[in-house]
């Protein structure tokens, strides 16, 4: 009896599919049942080959070898996951396997994962495609009833290969050219370089900003604050003399109520989360990085089956999901949310176009709860907070709007107008969900009538200064990557439209990684919650090819990749253009007369090669790194740990090595590691030496790989 082979992207998803298909016999890297065999990748099992695969001399970085343009790019099995590839290959080629079902993530990269494996394994069998957005048993079973012919996704695969090969040509050659030319670890790419340029432009805006002092007037009547405004509605003036004159002329005079108006208004719940919006909000509320949020929501999707597929750029659900909303509400009606869930179900669920729109759902719908309820005690603190964020957005769109009455009052004092607003809640609506998170100040409804006179008013002059635009946080930087239109130096409406439709630069799945690479390459650094560009980052932008700095390049690429995915452009035409572009940027870098200068040299000599070392600041601490990229020596100076200062409760830094290791806090507190261990022991803490080490290791920067390795990690190159 023939069977069908199902290829999942990860073991956890493979196990979920196997369970839904009643497969119960576990093998080494697969699970088998009566009708199906389920196997899996480990993410990518196959990737594009390193340059040295084509010529051994490419293993040494030499500028005269560039550009590296092989006749045809080859794929290779990733060495570390070769065992699982052989397992998958064996299952594909079994005599009793009649058909292969691709069940990797439903998207461009998921298609690439599967197709490269099938191609490398020499698959000749028919291919079907499973396309689902959650891995609950119900969703899997329904998905298998609606399998698509694999041929429908061949153009999507071609677009994925085109994206990967283009990034290889530009990334490999651009990075090697910059690094060899300036003997410094410098990397460039069509996503990371424009992201860096956006931070630089923000810095330039802040530096060029000139603060101005402004002035205004206010008065208080019956507990309501009235603000002066001029004939154009401006509430502040840069002319202090004018304000002083009005104050002198009007102070102590009577006021007349010129107008009173009341209007009932509504505010609606915010949209459902896409990944970027969730990352932005989690950063704003909890300070989580994009990677931390993605890790938590991925766990809630894969491990707990509590949320739908996270790597989505849509904030809407499709109409076929409406019938499942009641079950989803019941599943997430936990703890304090149970009363809201019961109210929604009791009142009947009313779907509308504010959150249900098939035309605004492409690969995946918004992140929403599934029909499965997680055991909250099993979730980590971060997972619980992320889950509750999604619950609130989900329940919110199903609840009535917030209704309030807004009253506007206008006072006339002499020839000047003063305006005030007051709000009174009529119906709390969805805002009841957020009552614990937000401090709502509502003004009492004061009794004012048109023509009413106030005998004397006391005016007060107010003042302030205009503020520069705020620096990026990790959250707002992710938002700028999603919508970079203001950073595009173009009037081309089609390009501007495309960058909006394609979701900006990078993808929802890769943006957090790109930002993290910029930190790990010491091109960006964090000061508090703010993101700053480093001197190295500024120099890299000065040395990088001009069009690599703008999101326009990505917009142009995405236009063409979209055409490839729809069969309107041949992949080979696009790659030919990318090769010509690669030759141009290599030539530009080679002929440049600019130079790179390390401005973070220390007087500490490298113990391996004797050259002076560089002091670099990572996200979690400071390190010394050899300036010679071929040496690669690195030493830790300090790192932020999880250990809390006993005086101010902030996280302390660890400095020194061996017996001289010491905790140091910004407040001035200092404590040797030995004393710290003794203090913990005296407090009868269960903290072991191993746990203390984990405190530190958890907070250490990842191994400080070369900037090249960071830049090319997405390409799975060694």
From TrEMBL:
Function (record text): Releases the supercoiling and torsional tension of DNA, which is introduced during the DNA replication and transcription, by transiently cleaving and rejoining one strand of the DNA duplex. Introduces a single-strand break via transesterification at a target site in duplex DNA. The scissile phosphodiester is attacked by the catalytic tyrosine of the enzyme, resulting in the formation of a DNA-(5'-phosphotyrosyl)-enzyme intermediate and the expulsion of a 3'-OH DNA strand. The free DNA strand then undergoes passage around the unbroken strand, thus removing DNA supercoils.
Reaction equation(s) it catalyzes: ATP-independent breakage of single-stranded DNA, followed by passage and rejoining
TM region(s), chain numbering: none
Marked site: Interaction with DNA: 61, 168, 176, 311
Organism: Andreesenia angusta
Residue ranges constituting the Topo IA-type catalytic domain according to the UniProt record: 153-586
EC number: 5.6.2.1
Lineage, top ranks: Bacteria, Bacillati, Bacillota, Tissierellia, Tissierellales
Family note: Belongs to the type IA topoisomerase family.
Cofactor(s) listed: Mg(2+)
Domain Toprim residue range list: 3-136
Pfam families: Topoisom_bac, Toprim
Active site: 309
Binding site for Mg(2+): 9, 105
UniProt-recorded name of the protein: DNA topoisomerase 3
Any one cellular-component term (Gene Ontology): cytoplasmic replication fork
């Amino acid at each position: 009896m023939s069977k069908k082979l199902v290829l999942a992207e990860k073991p956890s998803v493979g196990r979920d599919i196997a369970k839904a298909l009643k497969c119960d016999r576990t093998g080494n890297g697969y699970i088998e049942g009566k009708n199906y065999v389920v196997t899996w990748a480990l993410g990518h099992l196959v990737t594009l080959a390193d340059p040295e695969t084509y010529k051994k001399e490419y293993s040494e970085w030499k500028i005269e070898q560039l550009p590296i343009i092989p006749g045809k790019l080859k794929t290779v099995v990733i060495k570390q996951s070769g065992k699982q590839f052989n397992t998958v290959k064996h299952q594909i080629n079994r005599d009793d396997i009649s058909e292969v079902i691709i069940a990797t993530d439903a998207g461009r990269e998921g298609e690439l994962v599967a197709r490269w494996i099938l191609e490398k394994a020499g698959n000749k069998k028919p291919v079907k495609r499973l396309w689902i957005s959650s891995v609950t048993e119900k969703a899997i079973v329904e998905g298998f009833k609606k399998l698509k012919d694999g041929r429908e996704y061949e153009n999507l695969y071609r677009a994925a290969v085109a994206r990967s090969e283009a990034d290889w040509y530009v990334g490999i050659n651009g990075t090697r050219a910059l690094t060899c030319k300036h003997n410094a670890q410098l990397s460039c790419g069509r996503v990371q370089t424009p992201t860096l340029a956006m931070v630089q432009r923000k810095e330039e805006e802040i530096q060029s900003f000139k603060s101005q002092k402004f002035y205004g007037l206010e008065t208080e009547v019956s507990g309501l604050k009235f603000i002066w405004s001029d004939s154009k509605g401006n509430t502040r003036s840069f002319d202090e003399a004018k304000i002083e004159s009005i104050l002198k002329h009007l102070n102590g005079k009577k006021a007349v109520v010129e107008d009173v108006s009341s209007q009932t208004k509504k505010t609606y719940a915010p949209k459902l989360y896409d990944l970027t919006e969730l990352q932005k909000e989690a950063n704003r509320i909890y300070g989580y990085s994009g990677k931390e949020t993605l890790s938590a929501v991925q766990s809630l999707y894969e491990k707990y089956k509590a949320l739908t597929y996270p790597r989505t750029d849509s904030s809407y659900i499709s109409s076929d999901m409406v019938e499942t909303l009641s079950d989803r509400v019941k599943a997430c009606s936990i703890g304090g949310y149970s009363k809201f869930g019961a109210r929604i179900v009791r009142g009947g669920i009313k779907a509308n176009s504010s959150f249900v729109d098939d035309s605004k759902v492409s690969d995946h719908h918004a992140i929403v709860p599934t029909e499965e309820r997680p055991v909250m005690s099993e979730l980590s603190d971060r997972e619980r907070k992320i889950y509750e964020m999604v619950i609130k957005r989900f329940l919110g769109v199903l609840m009535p709007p917030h209704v309030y009455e807004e009253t506007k009052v206008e006072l006339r004092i002499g020839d000047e107008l003063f305006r005030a607003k007051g709000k009174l809640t009529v119906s709390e609506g969805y805002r009841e969900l957020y009552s614990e998170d937000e401090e709502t100040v509502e003004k009492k409804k004061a009794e004012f009538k048109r023509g009413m006179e106030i005998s004397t008013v006391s005016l007060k002059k107010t003042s302030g200064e205009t503020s520069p635009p705020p620096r990026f946080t990790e959250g707002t930087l992710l938002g700028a990557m999603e919508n970079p239109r203001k950073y595009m130096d173009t009037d081309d409406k089609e390009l501007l439209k495309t960058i909006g439709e394609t979701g900006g630069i990078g993808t929802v799945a890769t943006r957090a990684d790109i930002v993290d690479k910029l930190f790990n390459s010491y091109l960006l650094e964090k000061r508090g919650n703010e993101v700053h560009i480093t001197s190295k980052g500024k120099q890299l932008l000065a040395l990088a090819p001009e069009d690599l700095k703008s999101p326009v390049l990505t917009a142009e690429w995405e236009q063409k990749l979209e055409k490839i995915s729809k069969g309107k452009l041949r992949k080979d035409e696009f790659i030919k253009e990318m090769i010509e572009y690669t030759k141009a940027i290599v030539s530009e870098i080679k002929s440049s007369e600019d130079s790179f200068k390390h401005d973070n040299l220390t007087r500490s000599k490298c113990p391996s090669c004797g050259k002076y070392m560089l002091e670099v600041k990572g996200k979690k601490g400071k390190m010394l790194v050899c300036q010679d990229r071929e040496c690669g020596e690195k030493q830790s100076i300090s790192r932020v740990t999880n250990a809390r200062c006993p005086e101010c409760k902030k996280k302390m830094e660890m400095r020194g090595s061996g017996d001289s290791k010491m905790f140091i806090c910004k407040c001035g507190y200092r404590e040797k590691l030995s004393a710290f261990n003794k203090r913990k022991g005296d407090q009868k803490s269960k903290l072991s030496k191993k746990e203390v080490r984990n405190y530190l290791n958890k907070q250490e920067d990842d191994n400080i790989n070369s900037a090249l390795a960071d830049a090319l990690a997405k390409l799975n190159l060694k």
